[in-house]
Amino acid sequence: MTYDLFSTPAGEAPKQATIERLFFGLMLPETPAQAAVEVLEESRREQGLRGQPIRKDRLHITLIHIGDYENALPQRIVDEALNAGASLALPAFDVIFDRETSFSGAPGRYPHILSGAEGLDALKAFRSELLKAVIRHGVKPLSRQDFNPHVTLSYADRRLPERPIPPIGWRPEEFVLIHSEVGRSIYHTLGRWPLR
Q1: Residue 22 clears pLDDT 70, i.e. is over it
Q2: What confidence tens digit (pLDDT) does each residue in 158-173 have?
Q3: How much of the chain, in percent, has pLDDT values that exceed 70?
Q4: Rounded CA gap, 189 and 180, in Å?
Q5: Residue 122 has pLDDT above 90, yes or no
Q6: Beta partners for 187?
Q7: What is the structure's pLDDT at 145?
Q8: What is the pLDDT, as a whole number, of residue 10?
Q9: InterPro entries, from UniProt (predicted)?
């Protein structure tokens, strides 16, 4: 029997649509990831923050959100994104976050983030070059030209005022193309490229 994904043969439960996300990012290595977890734990302990934390091995900076797709990633988009990543040969740079704050969000799901001002210029320049490469290779990403570098630590029950934290910094060795199974905390690394 043939049927499309959203039709249901008699006697079978309907299939749930899934959201498959494609993005370029920088994953946090162990040491800065642990420091980020400690910032989150301190906010929970001292300010009573509650909410869903991001797993330490999933902490990242989203560089470019390519798109969200129902049930499967389009292979053409994946191939073009891989070509865009492979076209860059850029030097390594330092990343430093020295604040924590919150973004606005849905009630009870406010993104609690690491942010900064100084120490992110080289990251912004790198992201600009990556965005140009993505567009040059025929991909129309969801991300816009403007870029606010951050690491989401959790989705919290309320917003927090901005406060300084001990700087969390590192020199990324690579950037990656990730397929995220949204809502299931499953990441698949589709491509990785060194920063020299």
Answers
A1: yes
A2: 898 899 999 999 999 9
A3: 92
A4: 9
A5: yes
A6: 180
A7: 85
A8: 54
A9: Cyclic_Pdiesterase (IPR009097), RNA_CPDase (IPR004175)
Which residues have C-beta within 8 Å of that of residue 12, sequence separation ≥ 6? Answer: none
Mention every residue, 6+ apart, whose C-beta is less than 8 A from residue 32.
168, 169, 170
Contact between 20 and 179 (Cβ < 8 Å): yes
Instruction: Return d(Cα 8, Cα 15) in angstroms, integer.
Output: 8
Query: Which of the residue ranges 12-21, 40-49, 55-64 has the most confident prediction, judged by mean pLDDT?
Result: 55-64
Question: What tokens does 9 get?
Answer: 């043969």
What mean pLDDT comes out for the span 139-166?
92
* Identity of the residue numbered 133: A
- Where do we find the tokens 């309320």? 158
Return the axis-axis angle of helices 75-86 and 121-136, rounded to nearest 10°: 130
- The pTM for the full model equals 0.88
190 HSE (CA, 13 A, CB side): 24
* CA-to-CA separations, 82 to 112, 139, 190, in angstroms, rounded: 30, 11, 8
Token readout for 112 is: 């609690």
